[in-house]
Amino acid sequence: MYPTSVPERGYPKLAALMGAHHETTIFRRFGKLNMLNLLSLQAELTDLEVKLENTIKEDEDSGDEYRMLYAVDFREMRDHAKDADNLQWQMLLEIRAKLQEYNAALLQVAQISKLEIPRKDELDFLQDWLRRPSMGNSFLRGRERQIWSGRAPQEMITLAQRQMERDPFSNWLSTRLVDIYDQVWGNRRKEPIAGNPDIVQYDDSRLTTISNAVSVVFASLVPTVSVLVLYFIENMLVRIGLLVVFTAVFSAALALFTSARKIEIFSAIAA
Fold it and tell me: Which one, of 34, 33, 14, lies nearest residue 24 by Cα?
């Protein structure tokens, strides 16, 4: 017997959206809670460290022939693990378990910190989807309403894998220009996504192609136009002024049309 088809709503519907569209896989970072967890584990280990040092000193000063060997012979310590006065071995086992928990938490937080922050338009879309009656229909209840509502992108992480680092122009192209295109013409031509009749999706690869084409054309025009203009200018002072202007335009183009770092921009200008 096959399961009957039930209209999805709530979290199952949200999970279906996230499974189909990676840009909506946005979750809370819980930065404060992660740091509190690490700090508490660190404090526990610090306390255990002091207790272990005191226990080692007590064993050294005990005068007991076996306990005095613990500092130079772990096997001796293990062989007397069941002794009531072998606190050092018991503490080492406790520290070992706590260190594993602490190190695992550290590595997890380090991995989480490498995950990207979602773009504002991606978070805005998810928040809008949750509100719309034909989509999420505001299904969240109680404190769960606050998971995505009113959050800044810096508080969230996304599981989406970027094909490449976007420059400011590409970001503008994928948000403002696409919105204008969709309102004027695109929504009449694009077919809605199956299961989400109110959602229209545009191919990122096409946007990237357009952005790259504009960038290449602009990059080739700036030096050519500057040389042509300077050729017709005879006044040296005006030439120097225009050279400063063209240099500024070139540096602005590098900042807007590429994802180059500051040092790379300075190197390009100096060259």
Answer: 14
Kindly tell me the number of DSSP H helices and DSSP E strands found in the chain.
11, 2
Q: Give Cα 248 to chain centroid, integer Å.
A: 32
Q: Which of 164, 167, 234 is nearest to 205 (CA)?
A: 164
**Where are the strands (E) in 34-187, listed by range?**
156-158
- Give the span between the Cα atoms of 116 and 157, in whole angstroms: 6
Q: What is the pLDDT of residues 201-233, one digit of tens each?
A: 666 666 667 666 777 777 677 777 878 887 788
- 28 strand-pairing partners: 156
Length of the chain as a residue count: 271
DSSP, collapsed to helix, strand or coil, labels residue 26 as: strand
Structural element, H or E, at residue 129 = helix 120-131
Q: How many CA atoms lie within 13 A of 147 on its CB side?
A: 14
* pTM exceeds cut of 0.70: no
pLDDT single digits (tens) 238-255: 888 888 887 777 777 766
Query: How many CB atoms within 10 Å of residue 145?
Result: 13
